[in-house]
Structure formats: structure tokens, C-alpha cells
Amino acid sequence: MDAPFGTFLLDEAIVIWRTSDGKAHAMKDLCIHRGTALSLGWLKDDCVVCPYHAWQYDRHGECILIPQAPGAKIPSKAKTPKYNCVEKFGIVWVAINEPVYNLPNIQEFNDKKWQFINTGPFEWDSDSSRQIENFTDFGHFPWVHPGLLGNPDRPLVPECKVQVKGSVLHYSIVRPEANNTNDFPIFANEKVVKPERKSVYELHLPYTIILRLGWGGEKGMIYFFTSQPISKNKCRGYCIVGRNYNLDEPESVIQDFEKVIFDQDKRIVESQRPQQVPFDLSEELHLKFDSVAINYRRTMKKEKLYY
Ligand code: FES
Ligand SMILES: [Fe+2]
Fold it and tell me: Does CATH place domain 107-302 in 3.90.380.10?
């Protein structure tokens, strides 16, 4: 990152940038002088420089140089709010208020036998809650991803019990494996009579999922998915795919596969109204196979995690 990067979190404009020691910083993307977006500026001497009149803000958000008033005392009001910011899994995480939960751990990330591939990001016109529920939804696989993740001849959703531990939902399912296609030979289904895939999920509220796929042997995949809540009608999903096999296969095979899958979901989810999941269970119609969504909505409401 050699230039400041502007983005939004819960409608708040944020500028993210790095000092020369490599550390990432996040601040309100607003210059106190005339309200200009600092992210349109540039980096100099471990500061963000405003693009309008070149005031310089340091890593604490303090303005330390005003070129139009050299040597004069800098007004104490000359600063921009700084936010909590950490980097993990190659993603910069920002919390506008004090963080409520710890970020999850994935031990495989530090294991050399595993390869991790960034896919996306996937920017959708929906709230993050709809994007997350879509990632956890089993019933749509045969209809939205026929031939890739499901088969219309097998519409039944296997039984899935959800365990809620604090702000994390745990659940798993075993289902018949969809075949690899010639374009996307990426799943490690063993050549057995009845190939089955076990999917073990951790849904860390509000918007992060760790999914481990296994076929009964050593080979495994991990999906790490998190959705950035930009606004109530905009989100950006980051999907990191890990695997401990096929390490010579080009990363683009997985990236292209996820692009196809996420694009198939995007048009469906962008049509959903309201754009944010209604957290009151009476507002939509739930059946037994929707147990993950029911628990997601219930726990989000209990933990007061939506806005
Ligand atoms: S608006 Fe930023 S320096 Fe003037
Ligand atoms: Fe999908």
C-alpha cells in the first residue's frame, strides 16, 4: 500500500494507510480544514497528506504540519479520529468503537503444508447479513449452482444441528459430493463408491465464517469468509481458500471458480428485500432446513449486532 486507501465501514468514511515500518493505520477519512477526503491525498514522512492544501496527519491522527502557517502553533482541533486497526490473515480489520470480540484463529494459516489463495473481493448491493446468510444456506445449492455445488435431483438438505456458543454458531453437514468439472477440478473427492463431503462450519458473528471441508482422508480445504459492512445496501466479501493438496494447480482455477459461484449468488441476493436480513423471525417464513438462518437471526438479535 503506497497510497492511502479510502473505504467505508457502517457508512463511516475510513482512510487506511501504512507507515514505513509496515504498520497499517485507520482514521476518519476527513480533513478538519475543509472536509476533504484524506484518501485522495498521498503519503509523506509517515503521514497522510491532504490533497487540497497539503496538511499532514500522523499515525495518531494529529495534524503536524500546515504549509500555509510555517512555525505557527498548530491548533489543538487540527486532528482526525483514529480507529482500532489490526492486520490478520492478510486483511486489515478496523473497529470504529472498542472491539467486542477477538478475531478468530486458524491454526492452518501458520502451517507450511497449507496454501492460501485470495479470491474476490465480492462487492454486492446488499447488507453483509444477506451475504453471510447466503454463504451458510444449503437449500439453494442445487438451484443456483447446479453441477458445481449441487444437483436439482437431490434437493433435500441433510439434517443440521446448530450449537450456539456465545457469539459463534457451530454446525456441520455431510452431503453427497458434487462432481469436479473439467473447468474446476478442485475438490479432493476420493474415488469411492459414495463420495461424501463433510463441511464443518464456525460462524463468528456478525460476518465471519470458517468452513473446513473434508472427504474422510488427509486432504482438506478451508474457506475463510468475511463480509465488510460498507452500508445497509453495500458489502464486500473477502474469501480466502486454503488447501493442503493440488498445490501445483494455478491459483486462478480456484479464483475463477469462486468468481462463477459468487456471481451466481450475487444476482439472487441483490434482489432480496429488505436488503438487510430482518432479524425478527416473524418477518420471513422459516422451515426446518433453515436452522442456520434461524439461529443466526436469533443470536444477532440477542447480541444486538445489527444497526
Ligand atoms: S481541506 Fe485538507 S488541507 Fe485544506
Ligand atoms: Fe451460493
Answer: yes
